[in-house]
Amino acid sequence: MTDAINAPTRSDPRTRRNVAVLVGAQAILGSQMPMLFVVGGLVGNTLTPNPCLATLPISMIVFGSMTTAPWISPLMQRQGRRNGFIIGALAGALGAAIAGYGLYIGSFLMLLLGSYVSGIYMSAQGFYRFAAADGASEQFRPKAISYVMAGGLLSAIIGPQLNKLMFDFSVIPFLGSYVAIVVLNLLGLFLFFLLDLPNAAALAAAKTSDAVRSKLELLKTPRVAVAIICGMVSYALMNLVMTSTPLAVMGCGFEADNANDIVSAHVLAMFVPSFFTGHLINRFGVEKIVATGLVILGLAGAVALTGVTLANFFIALILLGLGWNFGFIGATTMLASSHTISERGVVQGLNDSIVFGCVTLASLASGGLMNCSGGSAVEGWNAVNIAMIPFLTLAGGALIWLSLRPKSAH
Q1: How far apart are CA 390 and CA 1, in angstroms?
Q2: Are the CB atoms for 225 and 213 separated by under 8 Å?
């Protein structure tokens, strides 16, 4: 769909400037996510009396993101993206401080509270991609989304390596990581003052007379529904496997540094393709790129099931990242072209609530499957990867269903 607010072309300096700022935010502030996903499970494993709940801190981050999306998306619609992004960064600092304090006093509940607050940052970060799309032309939109996601390339390097440096920062293992995350958020939030996005008044003036469909009507729209399903499955399965990876790596006799290196390779694979994903979408069509992502996710599970050597972990997690990139960026692009500007706040909030709701369930299931399925780390790891099959079938079936419908019925 096109409208006045999407008039800027590829050469529009404001659009390019905003994309550059958001790339920087993704790189600096986004580096906390791989840090939290590594230390969350490891710290949870040391504080919880029940090993099945080891990944609950990670689940609480995602749950915080899920419950934040319904209010932060309308807030951005009314007050502008910048305010929402600053709130997210402040919450990231506060959440890390609370979680670090929980680790310091040995409180699992305090760790969970801090993780939940960190989820507010995760939700706000998820809207970086939509902010890039706000001022982009229809042709440049998938590229703008891809470039912003590509900022995660630096976060994939900064986060895990900063974790390594900060592991031994204090006598309490992993406490230094939370201190570093507080600093990242407090420094990184100043980037958002460089944004030149349309303010709330401009957005209101740009609205058309189109009626805003209800959430139920939107979910009944085939293209919206399939975009949400594919985004949900891509993100949830990536989270399901990645959450268990540090536990599986160490459970199979390797070191924490090996887990960091594997997660780093995985996050690199999540974001390196972003430099060309937008071009591929323009050339081959968004449906084909999403389908390719789902196939690659399936290959990741297959590789993981063939063995538990370091090579298996590295290859499986690299494929997992690549599959997520194609599946999630493709689904985001599909969604961004499926609604009017007036429906933006409703659709994007609804999408992220559903996506991160399923990611929450995936991260909860990840710990249970990993630590409570069978009698060994290998059996738990196999259970995690086998669990991907029905969800890949769901997303693949939805995509095929959409492709068989007439274009006018999308």
Answers
A1: 33
A2: no
Cα separation, 261 vs 326, in Å, equals 22
Assess whether pLDDT exceeds 90 at residue 321: yes
Residue 404 Cα to chain centre, angstroms: 29
Taking only the tens place, the pLDDT of each residue in 29-58 is 999 998 998 888 888 888 987 877 877 898
Rounded Cα–Cα distance for residues 72 and 346 (Å): 11
| Distance in angstroms (rounded) separating the CA atoms of residues 22 and 194 | 10
| Dihedral sign computed on CA atoms, order 261, 266, 269, 271 | negative
Give the chain's largest Cα–Cα span: 63
How far is Cα 343 from Cα 195, in angstroms, rounded to an integer? 23
Q: Can you tell me the distance from the alpha carbon of 100 to that of 254, in angstroms, rounded to the nearest whole number?
A: 26
Per the CB < 8 A criterion, the answer to whether 119 and 63 are in contact is yes
CB neighbours (10 Å) of residue 264? 22
Average of per-residue pLDDT across 11-23: 79
Give one word for 221, left, alpha or beta, with left for phi > 0 and alpha for psi -120 to 50: beta
Among 22, 15, 25, smallest CA distance to 136 is for 15
Burial class (CB in 10 A: 0-12, 13-18, 19+), 195: middle
Asked if the model's pLDDT at residue 199 lies above 90, the reply is no
Cα distances (angstroms) measured from residue 346 to each of 74, 198, 281, 343, 351: 7, 18, 25, 5, 8
Rounded Cα distance between 267 and 258, Å, is 14
Q: What is the rounded distance in angstroms from the CA atom of residue 404 to the CA atom of residue 410?
A: 10
- Please give, one letter per residue, the 3-state secondary structure of 174-215: CHHHHHHHHHHHHHHHHHHHHCCCCCHHHHHHHCCCCCCCCH
Picking from 410, 350, 31, 387, the residue whose alpha carbon sits closest to that of residue 223 is 410
Alpha-carbon Rg for the chain in angstroms: 20
169, 175 Cβ separation under 8 angstroms: yes
